[in-house]
Amino acid sequence: MNRRRILAGIISVGLLGLSALFLPSFDKTPEPASPSPQPLAQSPSGRADSHAASEPPSIPPSVFVAKAASRPLAPQSAGDLPAVDPHKAFGSKNAPVTMEVFSDYQCPACKTLFTTTNRRLMEDYVSSGKVYLIHRDFPLPMHAHSRVAARYARAAAQIGKVETVEQALFQNQEKWEQNGDVDGTVSAVLSAAEMTKVRALVKGGTLEPMIDKDYALGQTYNVNQTPTTVFHSKGQTYPYPGVMTYDILKTFLDQLLSQK
Description:
This protein is 47% helix and 12% strand. It is an alpha+beta fold.
């Protein structure tokens, strides 16, 4: 009798052990995913880049439009977009297409987008009133100096020198990301009087909330890499992560502009 009880006890313990292994546990709440953007790839040089591919993704615009068409409705006009800094927005608010570019000054892919695609975009679409272009700061946590660079670019925008400073930051990216001398990079392209104003703005603390608002907005779009471009047209929103070649961008914009 005692041997039967012992055997039954062993079987019961074994069954409980198996149930613990194979049955789901309902008493643990899964930890929420971190909202902070994470790097998608590691560049050959060892730098953590949000988009480290040497070539931009080649996505046919027709496929891109078809996939993006199911995205949630966007604000009906550029005027409905939150926290737009007029000093970092280009073109007409009444343009039929609005583009928000979430960018990090220390991101190599953002440099590529700025020095290639966006220059032609400014000439062909922004200056002609077809596109309203908004720069959004999205400094990634793993880039040690990107937030400092964002402050200086914001300050330069306040005194009408944003394009000059952005160009200097991107063109000299490899230098200042190594030594952290953002101030020296900016001072090389501005006058002493202009630098006095920029430094005062950087130290004043008024620019940080602007950067934070851009970053928070990017999270509502689920931005997790830079650059990410969010297009708004006729009540729809079309997010595109990564570098877009000018040919793909032009074809896509022309499709948006031709929609009725």
